[in-house]
Amino acid sequence: MAKTFRAIGPAIIAATIATLAAPQSATADPVREQVTFSGTANEDRGNAGVSYLRALGADLSSDAPILRLNLRGGTADGEIDTSTADVLFGYQLVRDGWKYRLFGGVEARTSDGETAFGPKAMGQIQSRKSVPLYVNATFSLSDDRYQTNLQVGHRFESVVLGPEIGFSGVDGSEKLRLGLVATDLRLGKVGLTLRGGVLVDREDDTQNIPYVGASATYQF
Question: Is CATH 2.40.160.40 the right assignment for the domain spanning 2-215?
């Protein structure tokens, strides 16, 4: 339980602090930046991280170049403690309720006392339609790792709820993630996401590991 809180606790604490500190405005200001704190835990492993997103020369609801910074550390999907940092530049297209983002940059990955550098690419598709959809895919040459994630939801009054499925792989090891995710939970200007499900080793389907996760995003 303590290790689980260390993984997802920072996201919950950050949401509380950001909500209390956020100035209240009667009008909606353009959103140019966002910070996301997130954590995931399964059994006795977990990881946590923070990412920063900024629209360059416009706002996050418009076509614009985008800068993304990310730091993450832990052991959520592996046995070895790993920390990563990446700097990505990309472009966002907004069309009729859909957002398309494509990024490229460099990642540094430290694992087992060794640090490797390599190019990294990321693509995202997001829909705010009546059936919300989110697709994310990344590939990093620092360790030939890939990760994909798909979320489909149904919008209720104050939350979007639906299934998620993801695939990840590195060094010949592949994992499948199946779960349920709740998004668009609002605390002032902070958006919360909660998730839970099972992580399956595709080479040994008897290794079904439950996972939980949380993230908090503050836009300004």
Answer: yes
